[in-house]
Design goal:
The chain has helices at 2-13, 37-69, 74-77, 79-102, 104-124, 128-156, 162-190, 195-198, 200-214, 227-249, 256-278, 286-289, 292-322, 327-334, 336-352, 357-376, 384-411, 418-446, 451-472; strands at 16-18, 24-26. The chain is mainly alpha-helical and 484 residues long.
């Protein structure tokens, strides 16, 4: 009888916590939620992710229209996108630390509110400067969502089916990327560009209402906030993103300011490295990076996103300039890449709960490498079908890689370090995309005529490097993986 009471009390502790005043407070269960609460919580997380990713996708399409309406140059209009990305890059690691300190739900809900306020500010903007500032505010909210969503998904799904939850996250990102251009075109056809940001208001209010009820809270970890690490990491990423943006904008010459910014980013990165080694609670999760399977998964992710970035930057130039496709046809030809992920992600998620990520990710990256190589070897006058199936193969490969790799990143450390793991997952994506942009800019500068083919070839080779990094995880002892 006594044992039964002890077991009941222990079970109760997984769903309730007692604060210092003795009052009871709902907290995150030890191993996920039961249905139907899990379904409602997942709905709130996925809708927030859909909103943030859709907004990022549609802003790219609207830049020419916004530039004309606000009487701005194209170079200035690019900052409508860059301001958002810059805010996300600067905020990721500090937000991951704040999520562990104050709880994932609080930061996620704060992000939704900030995103809604940023959307309202975008709608009310009458100058390009106001719009860019509003987009930076949106980016801060989007960073909260992007950083906390994977950690929340891990928390609400039982460990044995965590891959399915991560697959749903990948599915939503793929769907928002696929429908983004179509939604943007429809809105611009029917009304003012401000409605691109106005549609976030009802979605955001709905997400907040469901999340505040369905998503349970988790207890924060009592640890100091590494202010120095936050400053150094923000400076490193800001300088790197600015430098890459300037390098990519250079035409026919080397942008000296961009080179200086990239050099300063390297210096700040070195300062960050030495600071983190001495910090008692480092902003960069060194404890997770010491787990071999985690660090190799980060490297694999960087390789894959660098390869994808090289492809996405070079494909419009290849299709429009060299193969004489119209912008509309170019958009349709690139669509198979994100579209097939919608079907591949759920399958990859289920398989990732049963088979090692080292095997699944390697298979996916081999397919990505082959798809990029075949695209680089397109005949001089290919049909649309010849182009589309190659890019579909790339999408199959990337989708097959993405979910198993993210599952390892989110589950190879202790559950209470989910915020840091989620932050590193986002950081790996940002670093990979930035490196891919640097490589593309350099290759276009080396050979304006053959830069696109060289970029696709380089992407294929980097994907092969990802295969090597992924395969090394198969040699990692299981004792290095913590799943508590």
């Amino acid at each position: 009888m006594s044992a039964a009471l002890d077991n009941s009390a222990q079970a109760a502790k997984t769903s309730e916590g007692i604060n210092q005043t003795g009052s009871v407070k709902k907290v995150m269960p030890a191993d996920g939620l039961n249905t139907p609460q899990r379904h409602w919580a997942v709905l709130a997380i996925l809708l927030g992710t859909f909103m943030a990713n859709l907004d990022a996708a549609i802003a790219n399409i609207a830049m020419p229209v916004i530039s004309r309406d606000l009487l701005s140059s194209a170079a200035t209009a690019v900052w409508v996108v860059n301001a958002y990305q810059l805010a996300v890059g600067i905020a990721v690691l500090p937000l991951a630390a704040l999520g562990e300190l104050f709880g994932y739900k609080r930061i996620y809900l704060t992000g939704i509110v900030v995103f809604i306020l940023g959307s309202v500010a975008c709608v009310m903007s009458s100058t390009m400067a106001e719009l860019i500032a509003s987009r930076a505010l949106q980016g801060l909210g989007g960073a909260c969502v992007a950083t906390m969503a994977p950690a929340l998904i891990r928390s609400v799904f039982p460990h044995k089916i965590a891959g399915r939850g991560i697959a749903w996250l990948a599915l939503i990102v793929a769907v928002s990327s696929t429908v983004g251009p179509t939604v943007a075109a429809a809105i611009l056809h029917l009304g003012d560009w401000r409605w691109l940001f106005g549609i976030n208001l009802p979605i955001g209010v709905g997400v907040f209402a469901v999340a505040i009820i369905a998503v349970p809270s988790n207890e924060g970890i009592a640890r100091p906030f590494d202010l120095g690490g936050a400053i150094f990491s923000a400076a490193t990423l800001a300088l790197l993103i600015l430098g890459v943006g300037g390098l990519g904008a250079a035409s026919g010459h080397v942008d000296q300011r961009a080179v200086i910014e990239i050099g300063a980013a390297i210096v700040m990165g070195a300062i960050l490295f030495f600071h983190q080694r001495r910090s008692a609670a480092p902003m960069v999760p060194l404890d997770l990076l010491r787990i071999p399977v985690f660090s190799m998964s980060v490297l694999t992710s960087i390789c894959s996103y660098a390869a994808q970035s090289l492809a996405f930057i070079s494909l419009p130039f290849l299709l429009e300039h060299q193969l004489a496709r119209s912008p509309a046809i170019t958009g349709l030809l690139i669509t198979p890449w994100p579209f097939v992920i919608v079907f591949v992600a759920p399958l990859a998620g289920r398989l990732s709960d049963r088979y090692p990520a080292g095997i699944l990710c390697s298979i996916g990256l081999v397919a990505l490498a082959i798809g990029l190589a075949l695209t680089a070897l397109l005949p001089a006058d290919p049909s649309n079908l010849q182009i589309a199936w190659r890019l579909a193969l790339c999408g199959i490969g990337f989708g097959f890689f993405q979910t198993p790799n993210n599952r390892v990143l989110l589950t190879s450390g202790p559950r209470e370090r989910g915020g840091a793991a989620s932050g590193m997952m986002t950081m790996a994506r940002l670093i990979g995309m930035t490196l891919g942009a640097v490589f593309a800019a350099v290759l276009f500068e080396i050979s304006p005529e053959h830069g696109t083919v060289m970029a696709l070839t380089a992407g294929s080779m980097i994907a092969v490097g990802g295969v090597v990094a992924s395969s090394l995880r198969l040699r990692t002892p299981k004792l290095n993986v913590l799943t508590s």
